[in-house]
Amino acid sequence: MGLPVTQPAKRLTKALCVADPVARLAPTSLPSFAECRLRGIWQAVRQPPLLPSSAAARLGTIVHRLLEEAGGGSFSPVTDPDVIELRWCELVANAERAMATNPLERRSVPLEANVKKFEVLRLRAVARALELARNITDPSGPAGDAAVTPYGYELRVASADGLIAGRIDRVIPAPGGPVLQDYKSGAIFSLRPDGETELEPAYTFQLRLYAVLYYEATGTWPSKLQLVPLTGAPHDVSFSPADSLRLLEDSRSLLAQVNDDIARGREDWVASERLLASPSPSACRFCAYRPACLPYLARDAHDTDHEWPADVWGEPAGLTQLGNGRLMLSIVLPDGSLFFVRNVTEDVAEPAMLEPHHEGQLVGVFNARRTASLQAFEQGQITAIHVAAGTQE
What is d(CA 77, CA 91) in angstroms, rounded to the nearest whole number? Predict the structure, then answer.
């Protein structure tokens, strides 16, 4: 669909200007550029997120860390599942302590109560970690540099010029040659427009790029690329040296273009932002920078297409106490209509300083939940509110 706009747009946060060139890009960050160049740049320079991660994403990071430690030999030669269980509990507790101090994430604590199938994921992660710990064959042991040792876990690889670099989850020896493995805690298949399933394109792209980075670091092409889910056998990813070399050249060209974009933005960041952004439901749904993105905020705040994130913004019109002790936020949209966000808790509303509000103030509610009403959302687990004076840009 087209992008309906309401002008002039108002910004909810300070501009996330990027002034310094990007020294290198990682394979994991490159797919973002295909959807939205602006989001890719913000991720590449590690801008702090403006919206919280989901509890499931936090747990995915814990799973990956557990597997990393198991594959790196942290539990060997001890292969008692209780040792791995204890480490799982430590990782969860560490994450929850960090989340509890972050206003954006504290509502997702404890993770066990906020992640569907938490126990299933725990059991699968511990089982896979135990399997790794009991079957370590990597001569190099834990993390290392592929230029020094060709096998290992969290193996560092880089192009010859150092412009594209990252870490491969695991490289193991095999009769036909090295096997590159990428561990995934979530789904590794996605649905194509024709209804058929395929391995997630972003994951296959990353592995194919890792193949050529491994070659540039070691002088040897891998014999096989594999995506490894939490349960079941690895899934092979097809690749060819020619295609991987092309991906590397495309990535180098992209880095040069990114730095040209950043250089232009130093003179007029707003203009550069509008040229770089490509707002769309798929690009914006998981973008943690939406409150700072003028092109996104220029779209119709009352667009009812459910493909877009459940966000709404406009002038605050007050807070009303509900019978359940929670609050209802009233918002005047740019077209003059009234919109409501129900069941807002004080820990979300209070930091936003919604009262007293002033003329021209702007409030944005992000990651809400849709309701049966076209004029109302309600607060969800990762809902965040941003308020600004609303200076027009």
Answer: 21
DSSP secondary-structure letter at 145? B
Q: What are the φ and ψ backbone dihedral angles of 169, each rounded to 5 degrees? A: -55, -45
Distance CA 172, CA 180 (A): 7
Could you give phi then psi for residue 380, rounded to 5 degrees?
-115, -175
* Secondary structure (H, E, C), 10-67: ECCCCCCCCCCCCCCECCCCHHHHHHCHHHHHHHHCCCCCCCCCCHHHHHHHHHHHHH
Tokens describing residue 317: 């019109």
CB-based contacts of 115, cutoff 8 Å, min separation 6? 55, 56, 59, 121
Assigned CATH class of 152-248: alpha beta
Q: What pTM did the predictor assign?
A: 0.87
| Alpha carbon distance 85, 125 (integer Å) | 10
Give the per-residue SS3 of 104-135.
CCHHHCCHHHHCCCHHHHHHHHHHHHHHHHHC
**How many angstroms separate the CA atoms of 322 and 377, rounded?**
15
Q: If DSSP codes are grouped into helix, strand and coil, which group holds residue 142?
A: coil
Separation CA 299–CA 5 (nearest Å) = 4
Q: Divide the 393 residues of the chain into consecutive groups of 10 and give the mean pLDDT of each group.
A: 45 90 93 92 93 94 92 79 94 96 90 95 94 69 73 92 95 94 90 85 96 97 96 95 98 94 90 92 93 90 76 90 93 91 88 63 93 94 84 47
Which CATH code of 2.60.40, 1.10.10, 1.10.1240, 2.40.50 fits the domain covering 281-388? 2.40.50
Enumerate the domain spans of the chain. Answer: 55-134, 152-248, 281-388
What separation in angstroms does the CA of 114 have from each of 49, 96, 226, 380?
A: 20, 12, 31, 11
Write the single-letter amino acid at 146. A
